[in-house]
Amino acid sequence: MRLLVLATFVVILNETILVNAIPRLMDSLHITEQSAQWVSTAFMLTMAAVIPVTGWFLQRVTTRQAYAIAMGVFLAGTALSAVAPSFEVLLLGRIVQAAGTAVMMPLLMTTLMIVVPEHDRGRVMGNVTLAISVAPALGPAVSGLVLQLGSWRMLFVVVLPIAALVTLFGLRKMDNIGEPQVSSIDWLSVSVAALGFGGLVYGLSLLGESGDRVGLGIGIVVAGVAAIAVFVVRQLKLQRTGVPLMDLRTLKHRTYGLSLALISVGFLAMLGSMILLPLYLQNMRGLSPLETGLLVMPGGLAMGLLGPTVGKLFDRFGSRPLVLPGSIGMVLSLGGFTQVSMTMPYWQVLGLHTLLMVSLAATFTPVFTLGMGALPPHLYSHGSSMLGTLQQVAAAFGTALVVTVMSARSGHLVADGVAAAPAAMSGMKLAFGVAAALTVVTIVVAAKLPRRIAGADDAPDHDSAAEQPIGS
Q1: With b meaning 16 or more CB within 10 Å and e meaning fewer, what string describes 418-448?
Q2: What's one GO-annotated cellular component (predicted)?
């Protein structure tokens, strides 16, 4: 299980590891900033397109086969990226990387729910939080450090042997869990899911840009939503007549649905802050990528180190003593960022960011455990697949939202004659304010979550609720 967590950490780290390498890529490959951004956008798009298929895939192959395929594909993409002679080859390498990464998180979550006893899931899920939540937060910091040692290729060269060793040891020690089920795949669902979720994520990424691309982004978002609607109708039909690609009966379980909503808003807040803070620290305060990475690293480390502790507390006390304070902490930290200025002490920035990361740690571990634990075992793979898909959509939406709000506000002020720097600062404050307002939703959702799921070894109290499908 530990090797599976480590492997997931390594592959998910790569989602954000190129954030600080954009200027190097532009200079080395002679491309524009818009083109360079595609190394991150393509990764996110591929994840959004592939993850919906993983629920079906994980039921069809053994655990060892899924692990070997996922890590093998990831290693191939990493090697291709490291030696890429052109931007097009690098982009292909990132797409291959993302295809392997997309399988790992659902594999980890599904395996955990099967092999770990319910009374111990909180502790183990704390370690999982390290992989799926902290890795994206540490990506920019790690890349800032590595880029001090050499070119952007070092980001892949460093990862390659680590991933290879994790793959080798994992295959030597991993046992198969459960029996694969032979079932056909509905290729119409695969196509519509890729177009729908991929289109939605891409369209949202365009909304953060300016000019004609905003109109294009709106059109692609509308088309993506329409494709997702077709996908949903198709899955509802397949649930009655065949094998759905993504079983939507997971949403009939109230606790899972609430957990899904809370996690999505939490990821939106985390990714939104990951976009805004580097812009503030580098563009407005003049810090280097390395200095920026070092400033935000303590928050990411605190989140990871607290994961196991939060898990143990959840096993002992249930969700509410952790999730409610965590949700409130998210709102307070993002609210605090609305006071950023050209003179705000760096220790205050560090403190607010650490508060946000600690609050997310207190929230994610219990909510992941509650949500997945609310499902029957045959829906674990589909539940983790849907969770991963919505994380990608939330990340894209959070990025588009904060950038659009910031750009619109600063552009309006500049048009009114305000200087560029104060206008940009005002736009950033408003973007943080909008993110803080959205996270108020997490407090409302947290108050509706049960303390524990039904069937826990501990005797249920008045806060526990039997987990029943909605409408049953």
Answers
A1: eeeeebbbbbbbbbbbbbbebbebbbebbee
A2: plasma membrane
Per DSSP, the three-state class of 253 is strand
Instruction: List, for residues 282-302, the tens digit of each pLDDT value.
Output: 888 888 777 887 888 888 788
295-342 pLDDT, tens digit per residue, is: 888 887 888 778 788 888 888 888 888 999 999 999 999 999 999 999
Q: Are residues 129 and 154 in the same domain?
A: yes
State the pLDDT at residue 133: 66
Which residue in 18, 312, 5, 17 sits closest to 130, CA to CA? Answer: 5
Q: Is there a domain that residue 456 lies in?
A: no
Same domain, 204 and 68: no
- Write out the two tokens for 272: 């939104």
The phi and psi torsions of 458 (rounded to 5 degrees) equal -70, 150
Alpha helices (runs of H) in 174-250, residue ranges in sequence order: 187-207, 212-241
d(CA 140, CA 298) in angstroms, rounded, equals 13
**CATH number for position 441:** 1.20.1250.20
Dihedral angle at the C-alpha atoms of 325, 328, 330, 333, nearest 10 degrees?
-110
201 token code pair: 């994520």
Q: Is residue 220 located within the same domain as residue 360?
A: no
> pLDDT of 99-123, one tens digit each?
998 888 788 877 877 777 777 777 7
Euclidean distance between CA atoms 152 and 97, whole angstroms: 16
- The residue among 461, 457, 406 whose CA lies nearest residue 435 is 406
Range of the domain at 206: 186-244
Paired tokens of 393: 């959509």
Q: What angle do CA 52, 54, 58 make, to 5 degrees?
A: 155
Q: How many CA atoms lie within 13 A of 272 on its CB side?
A: 35
Say if CB 322 and CB 314 are below 8 A apart. yes
- Distance of alpha carbon 469 from alpha carbon 375, whole angstroms: 9
- 380-415 and 187-207 helices cross at what angle (nearest 10)? 20
Domain count of the fold of the chain: 2
Say if residues 15 and 136 touch (Cβ distance below 8 Å).
yes
Q: Which two tokens stand for residue 462?
A: 């008045």
* Cα(401)–Cα(396) distance, integer angstroms: 8
- In sequence order, which residues have a C-beta less than 8 Å from that of residue 226 and are 6 or more positions away? 196
Give the closest residue to 37 by CA, choosing from 205, 152, 155, 156. Answer: 205
